Amino acid sequence: MVASRRTGKTAAVRGRVRRAAARTPGPYRRRPPARARRYATAALLGGFLLLTGCASMPDSGGVHQVPLSEQREEPRARTFAERPEPGARPQRIVSDFLEALRSDDYATVAKAYLTKKARTWTPGETTVLAEAPTVVERPTAGPKPVNGSKMTTAVVQLRGDKVAWLNEAGTYTPDERPYSLNVALSKEKKSGQWRIVDPPRGLVISRADFERTFQPASTYHFTARSKDTLVADPVYVRRRIDPVTDAVRTLLDGPGGLIGSVTETTFPQRTALAQNQRLTVDEEGTLRVRLAMETRPGLHTCERMAAQVLHTAQSQEGVRVDNVELLTARDTRMCDLSATAGERYAPDRLAGHPSSLYFIDAKHRLVRTSSGPEGGEAGPATVISPLGDGKPAFGSAAVARSEKKAAAVTATGRALYVSSLDESSKLGEPLLTSGATEAQAERGDGLTAPSWDGLGDLWAADRVGGESRLYWMAGGAAEPVRVDVTGLDGRIEALRVSAEGARIALVVSEGSESRLVLGTVSVKDGVPVVAQLRDTGALEEVRAVAWAGESRLLVVGRESQGVQQMRLVSTDGSVPPAAELGQGLTGVTAVAASEDGTKPLVAASEDGIVRLPQNAYWKAVSGGEGGTAPVYPG
Length: 634
Description:
The chain is mainly beta. The protein has 2 domains: 80-347, no CATH class; 356-631, Neuraminidase (6 Propeller), CATH 2.120.10.30. Helix content is 11%, strand content 36%. Strands 3, 4, 5, 6, 7 and 8 form a 6-stranded mixed β-sheet that branches. Strands 23, 24, 25, 26 and 27 form a 5-stranded antiparallel β-sheet that branches. A 4-stranded mixed β-sheet has the order 12-13-14-15, covered by helices on one side.
C-alpha cells in the first residue's frame, strides 16, 4: 500500500492499491463519522493554507509502505487495484492477487494476475481467517534448475486458521479449522511473467479485513406460518462498491441460510435484474428496479415483491427508501410501494413494542415495571392477575406480545399456568404438567420458562432425566401438542421463539456442556415441526438466550477456557465487533431483550435485576433485588 495519493502511473510499492473519492448518488448518503469529518475538515484547511502561502509541502522523505489493515477506511474513499508488477516472483504475485481481491474493482483487475486459460474464473466464496494468510513459496517437484529463470512452474501455499466462510450469496457460516491451500503458477512464454494457474475460489482474508471489506445486510422473504410477515435472512455484501444492488440481486436468487426451507419468495422463477443496472435511491427517495422476467405479476403479487425489495434495500446501513417502484426491463411501470404502506409487511409487525418489563420478584410473584430507559422509579407493581398473588410460588414466566395474557411456571418447575392480565381472571388448572417427579425437579428437571410467538401460541419444554420434550399450545389455551425436533442431540434447557414463529432458539445440553442451537419451524398436518438445526458456535456453556432484533440474539455463556460473558450473536453465527456486553456482571442466570431494539437489555444477576440502556452502563432496576427471570413480552 502507498501512503501517498499520487495520480498517473503509481510507483511499484507493496500493496499496490490506489484510493479515490467515491461519489454516492442521491441525498441519502451515509453521514461519515465524526473522526472522518474531522479528517475532511483538516484536508480542506490544509488546502486553504497552501493557497494562502501559510503552509508548505515537505521537500524530503520517501513514500512509506502502509498495510491496508493499518489504513483508515474513509466512507467516501474507494480502493483500486494495480496490475501485476513486471518481474514479480510467484509469492509476490499471489500476495498482490489477494490484495487486489479486496479492491473495489476486484472483478476485472484481479484477472490480470491469472493465465489466459484461468481468466474464466469468477470470484465466489470468501474464506475468513483469524489473521492474514501466511504466503509461502514451496519447492516444486523434479530437478532444480541451475538458473532460476528456467523454472516454468511454481507453487505458493496459503496457510492460516479458518474461522468462517461466505458462499456466493453472502451467507456466513462459522467454520473453525486449520486452513491450507496450494496455488499453482506458471511462467508465460511470451512475457516471461509469473501468472496464477488455479486461483482460490474467492477472497482469503483476515477477520479484521473482513469487517472492513464487508458489511451486514438482510434479504427478506415470507413465511408459511405468518404469510404477510417478512423474515430477515442475514447476508454480507461488499462495502462501497454496490451494496444495494448486491443485496437485491441476492434477494432475487431466493431464500437461503437458516430460513431457506421455511420461507418463500414472491418473485416468479428466473426473475433477475435487467442488464447494466446499478440500483440507487434518487433525490426524492425512490428506488427504481427494472426486472427481467418471463411473466408479469398481478398487482397484489407485485406489491409483495416491492415489499421484499423495500426492506432489503433499507437493511443497508445509512440507506433510506421512501418509495420502491418496480418496472419491466423496458421501463414499463408494474407497481410501486411507499415505505409507509410497506409497514404492513414489516419484520417487526408481530413483535410489538412492549410497554412493560416483567420479572419474578423475591416473593415469587409476577411483577411489571416500565420498559423505558430509566424504568419505574417507584418500583415494580404486581400484575393484576392470579400470577401476581404468589400462590403458588412462581419461578419463571412469559407474557404474550399483546400484554393481555401471561404464562408462568411454578418454582418447582412442575406446572405451567396461563392467565389473563385482568381483574376477572382465575388461575384454573395447569395447562401443562411436567413428567418429572418432585425429586427429579429438585435436581433441575421440569418445565423450562415458556415463550410466546407473535401468532399468540405458547411454547415450553419438559425435561426429565437426559431427555426433553417440546410442546406447542395453540392460542395459549389448547391442549399441549408435542413438537417433533428433527435431528436434535441433547436436552432442551431453555427456548425462545421469534415473533413470526418461523425460528426458535434453543439452549441444548449434553452432559456438562451446553450450546446455542437455532432451528426453523414449519407446519405439517397443522402441527409445527422444528428442523434445520444449526449450532451457532459462538459461546460454550450457554446459560440463557433472548431475541434482541429481527436476526440477532443476546446470549450468556463463555468462550473456551474463558469467563462468563454476555454477547450479541447474529442468527448466521457471526459476532459483531465489540459485542461483549456483560462487563461487571457476575452470576447471570437470565436475560431479556426486545426485538424492536429500542428497549434496554436486562439481566438477572447476583445483584438482582439490572438493565443496560443504550449508550449507558448497567443499572439496578428499582425493586429488583432478589428478582429473577426477567422478560419482555414474547
